Every structure is written in C-alpha cells, then in structure tokens.
Amino acid sequence: MMLFPIAYSILAAPLLKDLGRFTVASYVRKEFFAGKLGNRVEETLVVEQNGSRYTIAFPRWHTRFSRQLQNYCPGEQVTVDGTIKGERIIAERSKVKNLLPPHRHDPKDGSISPG
User: Fold this and answer.
1) How many CB atoms are located within 10 Å of the residue 98 CB?
2) Which of 33, 58, 66, 107 has the most CB atoms lying inside 10 A of its own CB?
3) Bridge partners of 114?
C-alpha cells in the first residue's frame, strides 16, 4: 500500500532539465516588513538566452527563517535547471547557479570585484 503514494509523488513531480546558460538582464528584490517573521522577500530574475527573455519569480521567504542569499547582478552568467512555460521559467532558487564567484560591491567607489 505504501508504493502508491511514493510512485505518485515521483510521477507528479515536475521534470526539471538543464536549460543551459543564461545572461542576467535584471534582478529585482523587494522586502516588506512582516512583524515577528522579519521581512518578507520577493525576488524576480529576468534572464536572456539567444535573444529571448524569460522571467523567473522565486518563492517568497522570510528573513527570520532563512540566511542571506546571494544576489544576482546584470551581465552575470547563470545556469538554470527547470522548465520553460511561455516567457516564464519555473525553477527553484537553488537550481539557478552562477558560473562565476559572487561579486562584492565596494560602497566607496562603486567598483565590483570578484568575491
């Protein structure tokens, strides 16, 4: 009897595939006060590949329960594991990976240096 729920969960899971390399066109991060939960964070990433633009909207999360995640910068190269539906890509944040090390922004002169 336990086989049915396990088989159903495996078959019902979305099929993720490597969609290749993308260039980050824009990254928008919005934070809203959420009381005891800290701030609620909403993130949207727009990526380009072969002249086509796709939007990735990551699930919302709260700062009290999650660590600071890496931001994305326009021009960075990322790989994505997910599925394409029209102009959207369905992917978890952990499946969008930078190809280069994270960058640090120097607040004094605005320069960017490898992490």
Assistant:
1) 16
2) 58
3) 103
